[in-house]
Design a protein that fits this description.
61% helix; globular; mainly alpha
């Protein structure tokens, strides 16, 4: 197990930076860079605890030992397109094509905010994996990239692994949420509590398997039905 002073480091919450990020996000909910700013400002050890939990799982330790990078699998568009119809990998490919996105967008947004230089290689690999699996979460949970879908994914995440920054985003949405949106958020919380811990999922292996089978294995149940709500700045989809 990799030892590092970072695993014992006390990390202060930067409330001023977090407030500015929250207000910026309120003005532009499509600004992914601001989301990363907020998450890092309110980490306070949450990310470190998630890493230690991941490192303690058999799958997590295997991924770290093999120095696996999820981006390698998600960037191979030709391989994803060749995967069987209905598989997680194929559905991920179709999802990203429809939404006009790829893992590079999240990477670019996250790199706008400096990373703690004390984070060791294994920790960086873990955090990059979380960043890159975000759109896989959309596919397996069935929540879209519209505003309601995004907050549902974030609620699901914080139910699985607490993080002050993600919780702050959900709280911001709850302040002005409709009754329909509050019900969605509550349902996403319950799903997150019941499901297997997705941070430690072996995504590289799951990509080739049928999506329905993956959802069952991860304890996700059927995808929800809801009316998407897209922001004014969102791209027009094909």
């Amino acid at each position: 197990m990799q030892k590092s002073s970072w695993t014992r480091k006390r990390e202060a919450l930067r409330f001023g930076d977090a407030w500015r990020a929250l207000m910026a996000l309120r003005q532009d909910p499509d600004d992914t860079g601001v989301v990363f700013e907020l998450i890092r400002a309110l980490s306070g050890g949450c990310g470190r605890r998630a890493f230690l939990r991941f490192q303690a799982t058999p799958t997590g330790q295997q991924i770290l030992d093999e120095k696996r990078d999820l981006i390698d699998s998600l960037s191979d568009r030709a391989e994803l397109a060749r995967m069987p119809e209905g598989s997680l990998g194929r559905r991920y490919f179709e999802f990203t094509e429809k939404e006009q996105i790829g893992p590079g967008g999240l990477i670019e947004a996250s790199e706008q905010t400096p990373v703690d230089p004390d984070v060791p290689e294994d920790g960086r690999r873990f955090f990059e994996r979380l960043r890159e699996m975000h759109d896989l979460e959309h596919v397996v949970t069935g929540y879209g990239r519209d505003l309601r879908g995004e907050v549902s994914v974030l609620t699901f995440d914080v139910a699985q692994q607490w993080h002050h920054g993600i919780a702050a985003i959900v709280a911001l949405v709850l302040v002005e949420a409709t009754n329909v949106e509050r019900r969605m958020i509550r349902a996403a919380w319950r799903r997150g509590r019941k499901a297997r811990w997705l941070y430690a999922a072996d995504w590289e292996t799951l990509l080739a398997r049928p999506l329905d089978e993956v959802r069952e294995e991860l304890g996700l149940g059927l995808p929800p039905r809801y009316e998407p709500l897209r922001s004014e700045g969102a791209p027009t989809l094909a």
